[in-house]
From TrEMBL:
InterPro entries: vWFA_dom_sf. This is VWA domain-containing protein.
Length: 217
């Protein structure tokens, strides 16, 4: 049995070459989000994975109080599908290996990219769509997709992510988009802590029209 008060944040961040223009904003927005979530009641651990055409586990399952400032070094192309597949598979296996009482009450997966898939070799889009849909339906993960230089709702849907939790941002609204995600997450954590079922938490988690407007939708 997991604890309603515990959360696992899994961040999958694009660091491909095109991220160079928004690098500083993403780093600052990530730092602000972590600070905000530290203040939310309940325990939280964080995993951070970065990708271009290669993949890196920056840290895994770190207590949120120990998370250091994000550093992005943009390079390479965008193997988005492979990065999602590796992140989800490894996270799922790690949770399954935990004693039941230590498993997180909610897994929050955030995928943030500024470009479209162009370099994956291991996973196909249909495979990722099936994988993410299963993680939400079966394991009750709360999955969000933030994308720029694209229609994030359209791309997110093609990946099996709910339109309600997909957000398009611009190079000028990175911090606003990440702040909106933090608000969504805070609301979900409170609902879970107050006894809401995982299904109810997922159903109530969505970006608002105002948040979409502020992000440049």
């Amino acid at each position: 049995m997991s604890s309603n008060d515990s959360s696992l944040f899994v961040f999958l961040l694009d660091r491909s070459g095109s991220m160079n223009d928004i690098k500083n904003d993403v780093e600052g927005a990530f730092r602000a989000l972590i600070d905000e979530q530290k203040a939310v009641p309940g325990s939280a651990t964080v995993s951070l994975h970065q990708f271009d055409d290669t993949y890196e586990d920056v840290f895994v399952g770190l207590p949120i109080e120990q998370v250091k400032p994000l550093v992005i070094r943009p390079r390479g192309t965008t193997a988005l599908l492979d990065a999602i597949g590796r992140t989800v598979t490894a996270t799922r296996e790690r949770i399954a290996a935990m004693p039941a009482g230590q498993r997180p009450g909610t897994v929050h997966l955030n995928i943030m990219t500024d470009g479209l898939e162009n370099a994956s070799k291991e996973y196909t889009r249909p495979a990722i769509k099936a994988l993410l849909e299963a993680q939400e339906k079966v394991d009750k993960w709360l999955i969000a997709y933030l994308g720029t230089n694209q229609d994030a709702v359209e791309v997110g849907t093609s990946l099996g992510i709910s339109p309600e939790r997909s957000l398009t941002y611009t190079s000028a609204t990175v911090r606003s988009a990440m702040s909106s995600y933090s608000e969504l997450t805070t609301k979900a954590r409170k609902a879970r802590r107050d006894g809401a079922s995982p299904d109810a938490v997922i159903a109530g988690a969505s970006f608002t029209d105002l948040q979409r407007e502020e992000a440049g939708n």
